[in-house]
Amino acid sequence: MERRDFLKLGGIVAAAGAVAPASSLLYASKVESKNGNKYGMVIDLTKCDGCGECVSACRTANNVATFPDEKINNHLLRIAHVKSKFPNSQEQAIPLMCMHCDNPPCVHVCPVKASFVRKDGIVLIDKHRCIGCRYCMVACPYKARSFVFKHHEGSSNPEVPKTMHGVVEKCEFCVSRVDHGQLPVCVETCKKGVMSFGNLNDKDSQVSRLITSGRVHRVREDLHLGAKVYYLGL
Amino acid sequence: MKIYFTKIDGKSKGMYALLAVLAIIAATGMYATYAMFAQGHYITGMNNQIPWGLPIAVAIYCIGLSAGSLVLSALSAVFGQKEFKPFARIAVFVAALLLVGSLLSIILDWGRPDRLMLPFLYLNPRSIFSWNGFLYSSYVFICIVYLWAMFTGRDSWIKPMGILAIIWAVGVHSGTGAIFGFINARELYHSPLASPTFVTAALSSGTALMILILVSTFKATGRFLDNRLIIGLAKLLGPFILVVLYFVTVEYVVRLYTPSTSEPTSFVLFGGNLYTYIFWVGLILLGSIIPCIILFNPMTKNSIPWIMFASLLVVIGVFCERLIFVLPGQIFPLNLFPDMEMTSDFMDGVITWYQVSVAEIAQGLGILSIVAILYIVGLKLFAMLPDEARHLDHEL
Amino acid sequence: MNKFMAKIVVLIFALVLLSPFVVNAVRGVMGSSATAIDLVLPESGECVKDKEYMRANHMDILKEARVKTVRDGVRIKDYSLKNCQTCHTNRDEFCDRCHNYVGVKPECFECHHFPTSKERKERCEGN
Amino acid sequence: MLSTCYTFSAYFAIVIFVLGILCKVWKYAITPNPLKISLTPAPTNAAGVILRVILDASLFNSLFKSNKFIWLGGCALHLALLIVVASHIRFFVSPVPELIMLLQTFLQSIGIFIGAIFLAPIGYLFIRRVWVDRIRFVSIFADYFILILLFCIGLSGITMKYFIRPDLVAVKTFIMGLISFSPEPMPTNPIFITHFTLILILLAYFPFSKLIHSVGIFFSPTRNQIDNSREKRHVNPWDR
Fold first, then answer.
1. CATH number given to D2-32+39-227
2. Is the overall model pTM greater than 0.80, yes or no?
3. Mean pLDDT of D183-189
């Protein structure tokens, strides 16, 4: 090998060394929990009749920006009515919210790391840092995020901060309630027991038992995002 | 042949009138921006279904124009096309200005532009926006250094700076395309072809804009411009348009063929709605076919007015391409449950129309006016324009 | 320039240079200590740090607490804005008075709830 | 003791500052102009001259014509200085004007960068003085001193805003006490004391330093004379 070729080879190796850590950024990372908790939710659609009580409870409890114009009205939780295209098929009510993905596209695209995955798997927005570029809204496949288009009072629940004009909000599994050992508002409100919330890493938790009990699905599993909201009877 | 660069005189009544008109438009745009923050962003046409509207289209359009003009400026230094040397300075200058315009458009589109510095403080290496923040700001810096090298006659710098500038221009515009191409969630964005399409569209629109700017500036300042130089640029423009057309065709044919995207694509292409017109009339007919006919027809390809007309059409056509890129990806409801019918009170399963608002248009025009004002002031302050632009073999 | 003009020019410069004094004189606070402000501090108890430290550095503590709470989920008493409000009950006389005085505009209460005394009064009358 | 000392020094410095500048202004104003030496092209009426002086004082036209790079740095430095000084108005007026509050919210996010824009050109000027033989040869102590002084003032200011914070209320109370002649105790934050001391030195030194160019620019005969030597005969004052 001549000196010239050797240098060339060295250059290639060096370049590969520089690229390798960078390329690792492009692969999905696993969510690791510190205290071993990984929160998730199971929604039993066979019990849901789409009454919408969870939605109104969510709006009040989280000071969701509410405007009469439906185009700018914000939703953390919504109930979709889904029907197959076969004639005479039954309409199914499906509560939809942030799916708290393990590999959330919204977190990947955020230029300021305002969206992040907490150690226990809850995807959050740091609203003190959000610049309001709305890239996460474009990137989210579930339309889980809403931009606050205008100033709103939103003081229905003084215990919880509202979201200011110019930043993005979404379902956060009622994170302050979870941290204080309570259940998210929607889970607590639902009398029919449609929703259950708990630790996915705990084998004995209700959510884990439900997931292993039957055929659970997640919305758009084809995207491989690792959503942590599971649906029974989808 | 030595090229003498001089400042424009800039004392004519016409110029002051032009500046005054531009200043009024710019002020209106800034007022519209103020209103967005004072009253709320609901006064724009954007909503929770369509988070990105006209400002983003304007921004990526300006970046495209900028990247295109920068590549043109490097024609003489890097690609050995010495006859285009008279345009080198002005092309870099226009590139820097347009990038400033696009940055303005992006930042004023944010909900909280006062948090301007946060993207630099908290980098997210997985976010293409984070990368673009650095690409864009370093791009302006490279343009300025490149200009400085040309102004101070550092000839040994010019070629390396030109090469760097071209690499950066391609990187910047690939990055812009990747903003959309990386979005897995939206089928009409997700495409490996987004970046190459953006780069080629940048080349065609940048060349077209430079033709318009050069001819009108030389005419307005009463300087001599050799027709053969413009014809030379027009010779580049024709193939650029064809490449864009090719990429667009490939992209849309693939989307039509793929079952998951064929429905929205056919809605855009054959739905008989506004986007159909933007696509067929704006992009294909006005933006590609008519300019190609003009630029390849022996009767018209050497006539400056026809070339100007074709360039204008290309500039409009590429803007249509930007609109057709940004908007249809969002007007379609996200496909959460394939093959099912979905309704909710959050506009699920409904095609939402993007109704562009007066405020956004005023803001966009205002930003373009600011760019134009800076251009005129720049010509007055710095020796950007050559006294006369002659073809190399003029003396022969 | 003749002497008369020169005197006018000197006068103009004198006015500009002495404007802080002039503004204060016009506002009628000259010679009085009305400029100093009083803070209404809670009567009882200790804060997380001593008074001088809190006066100068409370924003750092709040910011650190904010990051810890939002990003790590640390919800202890010392890191809680709500816990501050248990002692410092009056926003007008505690937060706003200083902030308005030195011209600082914190954004905390655009989202977090801390009723001003006016709101508090309205709420009492309402009930 | 500290407070008394600083209160007296402050008044002393302010008196020197004001009287010094007024003396300079008087001297500049009565200095006769033997000739019309307006730098052409010059305006031919008074309004034009006022416009020209204002433009020159705000945009540094003549510097622009001589050196674009220094002009850019100078613009950045002076603009940053303007923003910083304007935001200091909040310590001198109570209640704080709405406009200053607006500027303040803006500075809360990017203030440190404004500070850097202020410091960088000063650093450049200092390095140039030390580095370039030609300039080092013509430099005297005062040239270095004023740069170091300004740099230290800026640095201590940034330190106070972002790292070692004084009690702002005490600072404002102290300053309001000074300007309303009812002295209040001095804040004891060491950085504030440094900043304040340096400011007092700057104030006392200002009328005798090269910083007096900020006043002198208005009296520069090449800029403030009307170009009407044909229309109106200019008589040399001591030939009258």
1. 1.20.950.20
2. yes
3. 87
